[in-house]
Design brief:
Low-confidence stretches: none
Number of helices: 3
Distance between the termini: 10 Å
Radius of gyration: 18 Å
Strand order of the largest sheet: 1-2-3
Largest sheet: 3 strands, parallel
Mean pLDDT: 88
Shape: elongated
């Protein structure tokens, strides 16, 4: 299943008051070139990007050079208890997998695209 791009020039063209754009979803959900153009044209005041498409961005991509853009290393989902909670899920899944080769929680479903 091919990822769907939701945020394009059509979206950015409708914006008022130069908002800040924050992307913490999946990289392909935003058209990176349309986002870059919206920033260059002043449709957006700034952008905070935890994901991009492609990821990682080419080292010479214009987004890296913009003072009003923050690009993080795809870690927006982390929080203080992240590792502890992830290990609990891993433990439950490992026990179930050893028992019958199935998973109890957060199984990836490629046919649904996630």
């Amino acid at each position: 299943m091919k990822p769907r791009i939701f945020i394009t020039a059509n979206f950015f063209n409708k914006l008022n008051n130069k908002p800040m754009y924050i992307s913490i979803g999946r990289g392909p959900s935003t058209n990176t070139e349309d986002l870059t153009n919206a920033l260059q044209q002043g449709q957006l005041s700034a952008a905070a990007l935890d994901v991009t498409d492609p990821e990682p961005l080419n080292p010479d991509h214009p987004l890296w050079k913009m003072d009003n853009v923050v690009i993080t290393s795809h870690i927006s989902g982390f929080y203080a208890e992240y590792v502890e909670e992830a290990l609990k899920i891993f433990d439950v899944n490992m026990k179930q997998f050893i028992q019958d080769s199935t998973l109890v929680k957060n199984e990836v479903n490629l046919s649904k695209g996630y």
